Amino acid sequence: MTEPELLTEVPASLKRLAKQVVRGFYGIEHALALDVLIRNPCVREEDMLELLKFDRKQLRSVLNTLKADKFVKCRMRVETAPDGKTTRHNYYFINYRLLVNVVKYKLDHMRRRIETDERDSTNRASFRCPCCMNTFTDLEANQLFDPMT
């Protein structure tokens, strides 16, 4: 029995999807942070600070926003220095399978919202009879016109 072939390189279409979604819905700081993660599969927080020249607080805010929306994953690793001290480092990476699922979910959510808004706008009372003050929907507008009067 053969093992399934694992992809070791991320397809360009997934990288492009991640870039376009973040550039379309987030600020420039988020797009810059994600660009670093797209170029490098796994990046330590200190390395991102050096590359982006952000404050630590600003970078954490940006990464926490992306992490909350499930675009970025974080893994904490405890490393031991040569002098025996232990330090904790945060490593950030993109889980592309989760990213695709999140984008699909958000697009479906937007589609449903547009459909319900469209349905509500057609059912909304939009015509009023000046004589009897009754309201009529778009579909009942033919009741307003009486050829006899």
UniProtKB/TrEMBL annotation:
SMART domains: TFIIE. InterPro entries: TFE, TFIIE/TFIIEa_HTH, TFIIE_asu, TFIIEa/SarR/Rpc3_HTH_dom, WH-like_DNA-bd_sf, Znf_RING/FYVE/PHD. It comes from the Eukaryota. Keywords: Transcription, Transcription regulation. Residues 14-104 form the HTH TFE/IIEalpha-type domain. Belongs to the TFIIE alpha subunit family. This is HTH TFE/IIEalpha-type domain-containing protein. It comes from Cirrhinus mrigala (Mrigala). The lineage of its organism: Eukaryota, Metazoa, Chordata, Craniata, Vertebrata.
